[in-house]
Amino acid sequence: MTELSDQTTRRAVLGGVAAVGAGAVLAACGSDEPKDAAGGDATSGDSGSGGDAAAGGEIGTTADVPVNGGTVFQKQKIVVTQPTEGDFKAFTAVCTHSGCTVGEVNGDTIQCNCHGSQYSAEDGSVKKGPAPKPLAAKKLEVDGDKLIVS
To answer: How far is CA 140 from CA 27, 37, 51, 69, in A?
Structure first.
């Protein structure tokens, strides 16, 4: 009986070690982006204000999104681009490769810093893998200078 008890204990210990290791790997996919005073991402133009884009609402203003560029609204997990002046596009900011939030928009490219995937700022299509699918388009309404995602 002692042998069975020792084996069970070893299995429990090894299982616990494996669970802790898995937790560390998952935590590595989190964002280390600095936050502003309102809890938003200080590097993306997300001030932490506005509604939750998943439920629909205002996420920012047109002034937040540069022409021939874009802004990642980290809190709402939405990326808004402006490929040409006055033409705004919105996509989910969740990379289709491993679920990381994309990090930035450089010119006509939305970049995920986790594994190097790149997407078109024009239509969300994959420009460079390992992402297997495009970013999903979101319905975006421009009301004056407000950006509203529904």
So the answer is: 31, 27, 13, 16
Pairwise CA distance, residues 80 & 121, whole Å: 8
How far apart are the C-alpha atoms of 47 and 79, rounded to whole Å? 14
Residues 103-114 as b/e (b if ≥16 CB within 10 A, e otherwise) read: bbbeebbbbbeb
> Tokens for 21?
């290791």
The CATH number given to 57-149 is: 2.102.10.10
Q: How far is CA 100 from the centre of its chain?
A: 5
- Overall pTM surpassing 0.85 (yes/no): no
pLDDT digits (tens, 9 = 90+) for 49-87: 344 444 569 999 999 999 999 999 999 999 999 999 999
**Region class of 10: left (phi > 0), else alpha (psi between -120 and 50), else beta:** alpha
HSE of 52, CA atoms in CB hemisphere, 13 A: 2
